Target: FtsK domain-containing protein
Amino acid sequence: MSTTETEHGEREAQLVDLTAYQDPETLLRLGELSRAAAQQTENGVADVFTGTVRLDKVEEAPADAGTFEQLDEEELDEDERASLGLRPIIPPTFLDAGVWRQRRAVWLNSAAFHATRSPVYLWRFVKTSAIGARVGARDAWSYLFATEYGELADKVRRAKAGAEHIADLRADRRKEAKARRKEPVTVYALTGCTSYAAAVLALGETWGLILTAPALIPFFGLLYVLGHRELARRAPDGSFAFLDSTAGADHDGPVTDERITNALREIKLLTAEQEIKPVGLATRDELGNTTLEFKLPANVICKALKSKAEQFAGALGLSLERIDLTQGETPADVVLWVSATVPFSGEAPVSPLVDAERWSIWNGVPFASNRKGLRKTLQLLWSSMLFGGAQGYGKTSAMRVPAAAGALDPQCRMLLADFKGGADWEELENIAHRVIIGADPASVDEFIELVDELIEEMDTRFAKIRRMPKAERPDMRLTPAMAEAHGMPVLMFLIDEIQEAFGVVLARKDGLKEFAALVEKLARLIRRGRACGLIIVAAAQRPSAKSVPTDFRDVILKRYSVHTVDDTSSDMILGDGQAKRGHTAAGLGRIGVGILAEEAGSEKLQVDLITPQEFEVICARGRALRIEAGTLTGYAASGLLTVSGILAQMRAAFEAAGVEELGSTDIARLLHKQDPAADWGQRDGESDKQWSSRVGARLGREIEQALDGSGRSLDRVKVTTLAGTEGRGFRRTDLTLVLGA
Model:
């Protein structure tokens, strides 16, 4: 290789074509290596001859093609930084918590199953090792003493080929056996065996059997390997296995692909040669429910499996309600959901309304959860609701949930008609705008008048909406902004045991005519009122065609039924034909569990739990919210006293002290701070006892005067004073109860 000098005096190398000095075979090998290397590059593509894309012409990019911008690491969000790191090369299943939960469940189940089978495995190991010892001894003897020559001699003897041939074979056997015993491998093996045996004996002699047993593990391991090989040879079909399969075990372990295949074979949907093909990996949610997707063989479809769903569940050792089968992307794709426990067997979840400070009915009603643990929220603003079913199965408790949502919304005006006449809705009376209790004729007449008032209110609201600009009423429905701006609060009308009111109307002289008119009015309210903010929530025991006519039931889009005695009763609540479609409340037999039928379909649900005590707290909270917002009206507001004079001063005293109890002298001191000229302070020369007696008597007189004619009283009780001593005084809760707020 020659060199030249640059202008700076440095030598510049010249390239020499070394390929001219290589033989053809070397050049061919180098060409193959270069093509292989090119195929690993970004531009290496499927040109099977060269492995490289050849660009004959490079076009220049247009001037406005844009530029690349280098982003600082701080400007990249978390997902972008992850994409630049290891996340793209890590399989998603390694990052899926649901997949890992399923893996752990399978591993733990397998460990527990094999642990219970350990005595069987121990006996199987001993038996296999014994076979290995016999086979090993046989093969070693056969090799060291060349027994195959003896077999040839027996064949020659039976063929009567002559004694000289037998003698030659025996001579060859002795020669071959002697040569084998002198082979280095044989010598090393025998030396190793004797050394190992001597070491084990010495260890046992020195340390006892405790350390001898671990030292024998390699020996028994070798025997087991020999025995396993022999048993595998005897069973070429692969039927021999040391560990038993967990899929065929009679236990409620995790559902796996193998277990599904065995179940499908058991119900004759698959043959012995067919098996399912898993799609992705099984996942398990936080509740322990498992979801698996698999593909059936070509001649089996999901519809066929659904028709045998009960048999399939039985083959898996599960009840039908613990599984759910849905079709995947193709008819052969199946998505199987398996519940960890029997659905709805546990306690009902506590309603989020119990701890909610307030709620907006526009956000829907958190109502229940389905068997998969998914939450169900009802939007009642555009569809009223009917509750039904047998007594004692949670119908009123379920109806209490939407009532609680309305109670916690200070902009929702509650209307109550309780024809049962019990104490189920006593707490709601403290916030309801209208209250009707009992099924006497006067109460029913009041109910009919209320229906007429609601129709008038509905017409008035629609007239207001029509007069609004179209920008404010895009779909002629009430919105939160419209409700606030135009004084049209949401109206929730709760009607319990509505069939009692219908029965009273039917018993009258012109009952049929009056009954038909009432039903028509209620149907109008339900059909049209939902667009202007009217929600009707009604309940009936067994709404037959006579007690609750179909003209009324058919316009209610959401229906919920607890346990019923038969499918006919269930269909009266949920709608005709629901039982035939597999949705029936007949025989549910579980308190708090029912069937919800709505526009999108029907499903079994467990209603959120709100106890009567919790409902009382919710209603008290709703009353306080309405007083604060100025929306406590009608019946509930009639119990409020005008807070003025001594009552207002006492409430201000409690608020200033920030305590729940105050003695009479404590209140006197606080009233003196409010108005020093009111003579609540201690006079000069007045003893503590005299002052306490004076202000106590004055408080009693002024409180009695303030409550005169209200039918209420506020008495002094034993309290803890601000000084920490016991004395006579008042509690904040008693004052609040007297004031009604």
Q: What stands out?
A: The chain is about 45% helix and 15% strand. The longest helix spans residues 118-144.
